Amino acid sequence: PFKTLAKLALVGSVMATSFLATAEPVEIKFSHVVAENTPKGQAALKFKELVEQRLPGEYKVSVFPNSQLFGDNNELAALLLNDVQFVAPSLSKFERYTKKLQLFDLPFLFKDMDAVERFQQSEEGQKLLNSMKRKGIVGIGYLHNGMKQFSANEPLLLPKDASGKKFRVMASDVLAAQFESLNAMAVKKPFSEVFTLLQTRAIDGQENTWSNTYSKKFYEVQSYITESNHGVLDYMVVTSDTFWKSLPADKRKVIKACLDEAIAYGNKMAADKNAEDRQAIIDSKESKVVELTPEQRQAWVDAMKPVWKKFEDQIGKETIAAAESANQ
Ligand code: LMR
Predict the structure, then answer these.
(1) Which atom of ligand 1 is nearest to the CA of 168?
(2) Nearest 5°: CA angle at 247, between 243 and 252?
(3) Of 200, 217, 208, 206, nearest to 35 (Cα)?
(4) Are 246 and 255 in contact (CB under 8 A)?
(5) Rounded mean pLDDT of the chain?
(6) Which of 35, 129, 135, 219 is 20 to 30 A from 318 (CA-CA)?
């Protein structure tokens, strides 16, 4: 019997060795909707690089940009089905899972990206990363894009210039209300459809960051961009509770560190990328960048700020106050 046991042990270890040798790395999918030459596109690629460097042969990361794998309409559902392990939708796109994040869509809430950063890193801001826990969504961290600008085929200098026009918005009731406060129409459409909607004039305008407007060529089909900086477009990098818990603790720790570093990398480049793309749009001469006088800007504030009232119960007055205090 000893001989048999030894034989079995030998066979077992040979099998284990050959299994290890041929085992494929576990694939982690990261899907997003923007181009690669954007803060989010670059952060996703940085994550891939770091994971494959630190867990070689064990994990590999496949990044799917440009709504290639999943788009706005299905990426969060796919995440919950574990068909994709990481996504980073804009904070405007979580409405079905929490009303709390609508905070970030309130027009003229943050005076600049430094204020956004201060709030996100504050206790209140960090608390919001857990706002979808009960729905099975785990917030890993905030990733910056930048402030939004309006674009249209006519110059938008005052709120009345937007009146009667049709604008694409992300799937957010706050953003829809924002355009309604200007007597404009808002249509919720996925990011992947925006260029065609603009090109065919199915819509008159949209709001986005410089990096999205440049990388997706919206400026080629919009004659004017108003430098309004009226709201923020940032992301939350999220995973599912199911996937997160399925990872061995030591691997999860490494993967979390890779995510944190990739997010920091994206955040660091976001401001420069937007400034660079703004300049590229100006240089292209395809679209004219319109700056607002302080009086004109104030007119937009006066028209759009009443939107806050409509959503303060859903978002929470204290949360809004905490965000406002980040401006100081
Ligand atoms: C949009 O839909 O306009 C943006 O959220 C796209 C993105 O992910 O930056």
Answers:
(1) 3
(2) 110
(3) 217
(4) no
(5) 95
(6) 135
- The rounded distance, in Å, linking the Cα atoms of 14 and 93 is 50
ipTM over 0.95: yes
Q: What are phi and psi of 87, to 5 degrees?
A: -135, 165
Give, for ligand 1, the residue of 143, 147, 170 to mutate: max count of ligand atoms closer than 8 Å to Cβ.
Answer: 170
Site to probe by mutation for ligand 1, drawn from 40, 191, 192 as the one with most ligand atoms within 8 Å of Cβ, is 191
Check: CB of residue 211 under 8 Å from CB of residue 38: yes
CB 205 within 8 A of CB 150: yes
Query: Over the stretch 77-112, which tens digit does the pLDDT of each residue have?
Result: 999 999 999 999 999 999 999 999 999 999 999 999
**Cα 256 to the chain's mean position, in Å?**
18
Looking at residue 131, its pLDDT comes to 98
- The H-or-E segment that residue 290 falls in is strand 288-291
Cα–Cα dist 295/267, whole Å: 32
How many other CB atoms are found less than 10 A from the CB of residue 196? 12
Residue 220, both tokens: 């080629």
